[in-house]
Each structure stands twice: as structure tokens, then as C-alpha cells.
Amino acid sequence: MFNFIMFGPPGSGKGTQSIKIAEKYGLVHISTGDIFRSEIRNKTVLGLKVQSIIEKGELVPDELLVDILRSAMHRYPNPDGFVFDGFPRTLRQANDLDQLMQEEGSAMSLVVALEVHDQEIIGRLLKRAELEGRKDDTEDVIRNRLDIYLGQTKPLIEFYIEQDKFAAVDGVGSVDEIFNSICEIIDQKK
Length: 190
Ligand code: ADP
What we know:
Blueprint: E1 4-7, H1 14-25, E2 28-31, H2 32-41, H3 45-55, H4 62-74, E3 82-85, H5 91-103, E4 110-115, H6 118-132, H7 139-153, H8 156-162, E5 166-170, H9 175-189
Parallel strand pairs: 1-3, 1-4, 2-3, 4-5
Helix pairs in contact: 1-9, 2-3, 4-5, 6-7
């Protein structure tokens, strides 16, 4: 299996690139943000539980993530691998993911971060708010999501550097340019 984490701050383009990578390499794309938004739309028990958390830009509690991930992964028998988008976001989640990979008899292969500076992110997310009307794309909530990224998620870079699985690409440029940079790294590692 080839298991890949698309890493980066909110609004860095993880979703766009993840879809392209999954398509090119025949991997299963798992976006925790998409899973939560679908649960909210369908007003499920989980959706109702996480709705206010997400609208404030906070993180859904770690305990909930591992079961959600496991059932999302088990929907696909014998996959060639996964592209994780929006997960892991905390050290606990990174450890849980290693555990889940072990249960599958596999391991994480590569983590690539999209590097985008704060001003660009805020601009992109405010534009997305106009286009898509996501409730977590208001300026205050965006700043909260960025703070949480810096405090809780960005430190994971060290975790993956230590395992020699980390690379970063410039996340500012055209979708295709960024995609090509990511593919170069994947092709070296595969
Ligand atoms: P973005 O990357 O633009 O911040 P996502 O679509 O990945 O947005 O996630 C939207 C929201 O869903 C997050 O702000 C958070 O509240 C919740 N969420 C998604 N993934 C996780 C996760 N792994 N752990 C905790 N909360 C999560």
C-alpha cells in the first residue's frame, strides 16, 4: 500500500490536491472535513454533535476521530492505499493513525505539506466563504482555525521528520504546478 498525508494549514489547497493525487495513483481519498460536513447535512447523531464545534473552528475531540477513520477505511476492501486530507491534526491522532495502519498490516508512506503564508490563507478562505458559504469561513473563525493549526497541528511536522517521511512544497502557484511538485516527490518515494 502507498499511504499519503496531504498536510497543511486550512485553505492551503489540501482538498483540491488530494483529489488529484488519489485519482492519478489509484488511492482512496479520505477527507475528515467532508465526512463531518456530510454528517451535518444529513443531521445524523454525529453531525449534530460536531456542528457547533466546527462552526466555531475548534477541533472535533480526538476520541471521535479514530472510529470515524476506521469505518471510512473499511468501506474499501483491499485498497492500494489512502490519501488522508485533514487528518491527523493532533499528535494523538497521528499516533492513532499509525496504530490503524498497523491494524491494516501497513504503514504511513509519505507526508507532504503545502506551504502557504497566513495572509494568503485568510484571503483564500474569505473568498471561499463568499462562494460556498461555509459557516467556518468568517474572519474570526478563520483566525481561530489558524491558531489551532499553529498550536496543535503544525508540530506534527517534527513527528514525521523524525520518521523521515516528511517533505514540503510551495502551496502558492497554479493548481497544476503544485500538483506536479507533489507528484515528483511521490514518484521518488514510490
Ligand atoms: P480546513 O482544512 O479548510 O480547515 P477541513 O474541511 O479539513 O477544513 O475541516 C473542517 C473542520 O472539521 C475543522 O475546522 C474541524 O473543526 C473539523 N475537523 C476536520 N478534521 C478534523 C480532525 N482530524 N480533527 C478534529 N477536527 C477535525
